[in-house]
Amino acid sequence: MSRHEDPHAASAASLSTGLLGFLAFLAGATVANLYYSQPLLTQIAKSFHIAPGRASLVTVATQIGYAAGLMLIVPLGDGQERKRLIVATTALIAGALALVALSPTLPILLAACLFMGLVTTVPQLLVPYTANLAEPARRGRAVGLVMSGLLVGIIVSRALSGFGAFLGWRRIYAIAAGVMALCAVAAGRLLPRQPPTEPATHRTLLRSLITLWRQEPVLRLHAFLGAMGFAAFNSFWTPLVFHYARLFPGDASRMVGITGFIGVAGALAAPLSGRLSERIGARAINGAFLGLVVVAFLLLWAAGDSLAGVAVGAALLDAGVQGSHVSNQTRIYALGAAVRNRLTALYMTAYFTGGALGSFVGTLAWQEARWPAVCASGAAFALAAQARLFAARRQ
C-alpha cells in the first residue's frame, strides 16, 4: 500500500460504463475551451488590427491561467466534496467564455482568457475523481478513457473552430458558453458525490504541495516528462495556422480543422497506453511514445508543404504525447488516493507551463526560421524528455 493510501477509503459509487462515458465527454467538452483560439488567431489578429504573432498571446494567456488554476483550484479536490467543486467550476467556465466573446479590446480579451484558463480545471478534477471511483485493476484503463475524451476534445476543438470560423471567433466562444452551461446542469444531475478522504482547508492543502513535491522523486520526474511532451505538442499546434496561412491563403483555419479531425486518431493511444503501462511498465512505454514524438517531427519536417503529410505527422505526434501523458499519470496516481488532486495539481501545472513554453518557442521559431525551426524545436523538447528518462533508468 502506498504511503498516501487510505485503507478505509471507498468509492462513492460504482464506475458504470455510462458514467465513465459521461466523464470522458465532460473532460473533452471542458478542455476544448482552451484550444478554440488556435485556428482563430489570424481572425483575432484582424479583429484587433494586430500582428499574428501578437495574437498568439491569447493562447499563452489561456495556458498561463490554466497553470495557475491547476495550482490553486485542483488541490481543493483533496479537501472538499468533489462533485460540488466540478459543477461550480463548470458553471464558472460558462461565464468566462461569455466574457471572452464580449471582449471589446485586446487587453480585456487577454484578461478574460486568463480567467477562463484559471477556472477551466474541470478536466484535471475529473481524472483523480475517476481514479478514485475505479477499481485498482481497472484504474489505468479508466483514466486512459477519460484522457481519450480529453484529447479528442483538444483536437476536435481545433477542428470545430477551424470549420466554424465563418461564424466569427466571437460566436464560437458564445456557443461554447452555452454548451458549458448545459454541461454544468448535466454534471449536477449525473455525478455521484465523492467526499474527500482527508478534509482540509485550502491553506493546508496549498502548503502541503511543497512537501509533496520534495518527497516524491517519481512526481518530479514525470512532471518534467509531461512538461517537455506538451511543449513539443504546442510548439507544433500553435504556429500551424501561420504555416497554413502561407500554404493556403484565406483558408488556413479550415486546413487546421482538417488536420485536427485526422489527428483524432492519436486519441486511441490513451487507453492503449494505460493498458500497456499496467502490463509492461510505465517507463518502457513512456520512452517508446516519446520516441514516436521525435519520429513525428521528422515526418512533419520532411512533408512540411503537404497537407496529407502534416496530417499524418500530427496524428503520430498526438498519439506520442498522449501515450506519454497517460503513462506519466499512471505512475503518479500509484502514489496514493488521498493526495491524487494535489498530485494532479503539481503534475499538470508543470505540464501546462511546458505547454505555454512550447507555444512561445514554436511561435518564435516560426517567426525566425519558419517550418524547419518549428519541427526542430518540437523534436528538441521530446529528446530532452527522453534524455531525462534515460538518466532516471540508469539511476
Brief account:
With 395 residues, the protein is mainly α. It has helices spanning 17-31, 41-48, 52-55, 57-72, 82-102, 106-119, 122-133, 139-163, 169-190, 202-215, 217-247, 252-263, 269-279, 282-302, 307-333, 340-394.
User: Which residues sit in consecutive blocks of at least 5 with pLDDT less than 50?
Assistant: 5-13
Mean of pLDDT: 84
Share in β-strands: under 5%
Biggest sheet features:
none
Structural class: mainly alpha
The general outline is globular
The whole-angstrom Rg is: 20 Å
Tell me the helix content.
over 70%
The helix/strand series, from N terminus to C terminus, equals HHHHHHHHHHHHHHHH
Alpha plus pi helix count: 16
Q: How far from one another are the termini?
A: 24 Å
Number of strands: 0
How would you sum up this structure, described in words?
This protein has 395 residues and is mainly α. It starts with 16 loop residues before the first helix and ends with a helix. It has 16 helices and no strands. The chain is globular. It has helices at 17-31, 41-48, 52-55, 57-72, 82-102, 106-119, 122-133, 139-163, 169-190, 202-215, 217-247, 252-263, 269-279, 282-302, 307-333, 340-394. Helix 8 packs antiparallel against helix 12 and helix 14 (282-302) runs antiparallel to helix 15. Mean pLDDT is 84; it is low at 5-13.
Provide key terms for this protein:
single chain; 395 residues; mainly alpha; 16 helices; globular
Q: How is the topology of this model organized?
A:
Elements: H1 17-31, H2 41-48, H3 52-55, H4 57-72, H5 82-102, H6 106-119, H7 122-133, H8 139-163, H9 169-190, H10 202-215, H11 217-247, H12 252-263, H13 269-279, H14 282-302, H15 307-333, H16 340-394
Helix pairs in contact: 1-7, 1-8, 1-9, 4-6, 4-16, 5-6, 5-7, 5-9, 7-8, 7-16, 8-12, 8-13, 8-15, 11-12, 11-15, 11-16, 12-15, 13-14, 13-15, 14-15, 14-16
